Amino acid sequence: MADVISSEIFPDRQLDGTGAKPTMGGGLPVIGYWAEKTLDLKGGLLWKTLLHNSACLSCAWGTGGQKGGFQNEDEENLQRCAKSVEAIASELMEPIPTHFFERYTISELQQLSSMEADRLGRLSFPVIKHAYSDRYERISWDRVYEIVTEAFQKSPERLASYSSGRSSNEAAFLLQLLMRSLGSNNLADCSDLCHSASTVGLNQVFGSGTSMVSLADLKQSDCIVLIGSNAPANHPRLMNELIQLRDRCGKVIVINPLIEVGLVKFASPAYPIKSFLKGSEISSHYMQPISGSDTAVFLGIQKALIENNWVNYDFLQQHAEDWETVVEQVRSLEWSTIIDTCGVSQEELEIAAKMIGTSQKVVFAWAMGVTQHSNAVDNVFSIANTALLTGNAGKEGAGTMPIRGHSNVQGFGSMGVTIRLKEEIMQTLEKLLQRSLSRVQGYDTRALIAASDRSEIDTLLCLGGNLYAANPDHTQAKRALGNIQTVIYISTKPNLGHFHGLAKENTLILPVFARFENPHKTTTESGNNFVRLNDRGESHLNQRQGTDLISEVEFLSVLADRLHGDDVINWRSLQDTKYIRQLIAKTIPDYAKIGEIDDTNQEFTIANRVFHSPTFPTRSGKAKMFVTPLPKLELPTRESFDFPPDIPAIILSLGTGRSYSQHNTVVYKEGDYYRGMPHRNCILMNKTDGDRAGFREHQRVTVKGNAGKMENVEIIYGQIRSGSALMFYPEVNAIFSAPIDERCGTPAFKRVPIAVF
Ligand SMILES: Nc1nc2c(c(=O)[nH]1)N[C@H]1C(S)=C(S)[C@@H](COP(=O)(O)OP(=O)(O)OC[C@H]3O[C@@H](n4cnc5c(=O)[nH]c(N)nc54)[C@H](O)[C@@H]3O)O[C@H]1N2
Ligand SMILES: Nc1nc2c(c(=O)[nH]1)N[C@H]1C(S)=C(S)[C@@H](COP(=O)(O)OP(=O)(O)OC[C@H]3O[C@@H](n4cnc5c(=O)[nH]c(N)nc54)[C@H](O)[C@@H]3O)O[C@H]1N2
Ligand code: SF4
Ligand SMILES: [Mo]
Q1: pLDDT band at residue 646 under the 50/70/90 scheme
Q2: Looking at CB atoms within 10 Å, which of 314, 471, 507, 683 has the fewest?
Q3: Mutation test residue for ligand 1: of 196, 234, 348, 674, the one with most atoms within 8 Å of CB
């Protein structure tokens, strides 16, 4: 069946990639991609979209906005990267033909891969799948509103939303206002699977959960510690900052179990002469710890800082609390314990400590290698402790910098789409809505799946994203979603969730405009706390017959109006996003400037996020330090995986993440050129591990997790720490369930025990 639908829809189904291993990141393949996309038939539309005044769709670096598409907030040019083109090209696809859903059954659509689902085209009319039917069918918006309004007439604890960080601040604000006004705090969000540990950890230490470093700060630093980030693929414009830092003789310390070739050397098209031809050196010092041991790495660095007197005790005394217990813990740890836990030598840790301790302005930047662990919050504490021990917080050019994921994921948090809403905002919302709001603890993403699995959710509204495929254990995710009466997917493109994450009664897919197509202005917030203004736009889909899309804001405001009718809020008027911005200015701390943005067109940095002096928004004004226990990293024994005893096998710790050409659960291209992985069914491992188990490179093996297995997986050898391996999500999410760090709810996607045989 898979072959039938695939060959019908994708006659040219083929794999790309040669398996060759490049020696640097960026470079010619990037330019080749630009050329391919901008010169093809859609090139004109693509350029128009690139030049549209709106923030890039892809990552939270926040390129674009009012600066004409190609500038960053410091007005530097040529800052748009190939990932941006990839994301736009996907949204510029033609609409899915009107009769498509009549033609294919769900079981046929379930055979599609992530890439094939995305390539079907843009969603452009609402569809519904009833329990009694085996396919989606077209439905009118009137009927949509009737069904959805009825589905929301349930007890508030049984209503939930999930959201992904591509929608606007205005849609996000409206979503949480609607949910809370109905009495539900079940505002699960993709950040629960992502940087939640950073938000939770940094809030406890500094009283503020976002980056304290602006782009201008980054440009002043003389040392960057980059932890668990594959920036060449996922935040490519950060690479320009690293290149510039090395040019001014600064140091880049990389901490990553895998040598990402682009973190060693990167050829940036933004610097055609100095970088693009030969490549620029990136890492000054590359440490490859055992996966999941970052806290131990930082404890080792802290020990070397203390022993060599590189600690700024004056700073600690004046600006930090509980630093004595942290110093005491570090002193009491034996070097051998630290080294055994992280697998990095004392000498390497001392080199890193010397670079940090003798630099003037150090930025600590991190991504998923830090946050997707069962001790994720400790990882964040250990980084913050290191920054504080050296006085690198609360001054220009230095500080802690979580590198955010989705282009507006941080805006969602600011707008109150979180289960940890600050009481201060709750009270302001109560004033706005003139009613008291529920304080019942809401479900985050994993708790939502668990609650659905217990049949405790009736209605789920998904504002973007792919709840099914983004979660570990697809069997559970499917079962859980299948217990919900009504699931409403508000989406731009079809994805695996639409075909596998089906509700018990009604599943609706509602098509919406992408950011650059909305008939109104919107805003987004970058990971560097910069608010972008996105102009009105037009969709190419409007000119196609039979299409019927709306904006997210229109859908949410009409739904709210239907649910609430005449109310203290004139919900319908919120279709004009200017009014939503007025409400945001009134209710969201430090967002006052958004109230003027319609008149001034002035994008802005959110107040009180970037710290240039060491007074922090904690009760005492000081940063609070936390002792960080060493992680426990034992892997299960061979016997705990149920497979025949006499065959060669090895137990590894699997890090799951993105290939070069995918955006989260959406795959754009099969292979990962930079890691030498020609297709998605590969496992990257160290040759010594392969030799130990009697494997050869390119051999096909089975990979087993605690919830399933993948077969026919090709072994690729690479420069990954022995004992660790890498595979791509969303496919690999089928085979494991992951423990979470209870403090932030994030699954341990980066340390999944597997047996390979
Ligand atoms: N092109 C593109 N851009 C994106 C995305 C995308 O999918 N595609 N996704 C967006 C989103 S939502 C996010 S969250 C970010 C994700 O951006 P990243 O966090 O860069 O992405 P990941 O692929 O999850 O992998 C991060 C790195 O962590 C390393 N790692 C694994 N385990 C460990 C560990 O135990 N310790 C350390 N120190 N490192 C480890 C891996 O080797 C890898 O290099 O990117 C955003 N930008
Ligand atoms: N194993 C493993 N699993 C992971 C991770 C990992 O590293 N390893 N990473 C986790 C992380 S960091 C994240 S953030 C999650 C990502 O999880 P999600 O955010 O849930 O997933 P995405 O793949 O980003 O969602 C893509 C879909 O969003 C919709 N979309 C795109 N643009 C818009 C828009 O403007 N509006 C609307 N309404 N819809 C839109 C499209 O329909 C598209 O198919 O995955 C997590 N899962
Ligand atoms: S770095 Fe991120 S925000 Fe900037 S252009 Fe590339 S994908 Fe877009
Ligand atoms: Mo993310």
Answers
A1: confident
A2: 314
A3: 234
pLDDT in tens, 679-713: 999 999 999 999 999 999 999 999 999 999 999 99
Q: Name which residue sits closest to atom 3 of ligand 1, judged by CA.
A: 234
Total-model pTM: 0.96
Instruction: Tell me 400's DSSP state.
Output: E
Nearest CA to ligand 3 atom 6: 81
Which ligand approaches the C-alpha of residue 528 most closely?
A: 3
Q: Is the CB of 552 under 6 A from ligand 2?
A: yes
Cα of 164 vs centre of ligand 2, distance in Å, is 6
Q: Which tokens hold the place of 396?
A: 């220009």
> What SS3 class is residue 468?
helix
For the chain, the maximum distance between any two Cα atoms, rounded to a whole number of angstroms, is 73
Kindly list the distances between the CA atom of residue 351 and the CA atoms of 253, 254, 308, in Å, as whole numbers in the listed order. Answer: 10, 12, 11
CA angle 299-354-318, nearest 5°? 70
Token pair 């001790």 is found at 375
Residues whose beta carbons lie less than 5 angstroms from ion ligand 4: 194, 405
Please give the average per-residue pLDDT across 56-68, as a whole number: 88
pLDDT in tens, 292-319: 999 999 999 999 999 999 999 999 999 9
Look at residues 410, 8, 498 and name the one whose alpha carbon lies nearest to residue 169: 410
Enter the tokens of residue 77.
Answer: 């040019």
Q: How many residues does the chain have?
A: 757
The CA 756 to ligand 1 mean position distance, Å, reads: 23
- Enclosing H/E stretch for 130: strand 127-130
Distances (CA, A) of 70 to 60, 67, 342: 15, 7, 41
* Ligand 1 atom with minimal separation from the 366 CA: 19
The 10s digit of each residue's pLDDT in 399-408 is 999 999 999 9
Q: How many CB atoms lie within 10 A of CB 397?
A: 21
Q: Which of 41, 8, 100, 43 is nearest to 546 (CA)?
A: 100
Domains of the chain: 123-194+411-602 (3.40.50.740), 196-403 (3.40.228.10), 638-756 (2.40.40.20)
Give the Å distance between the CA of 560 and the centre of ligand 1: 36
- Contact indicator for 719, 689 with CB cutoff of 8 Å: no
pLDDT for residue 467 is more than 50: yes
| pLDDT over 80 (residue 203) | yes
Side-chain half-sphere CA neighbours of 32 within 13 A: 4
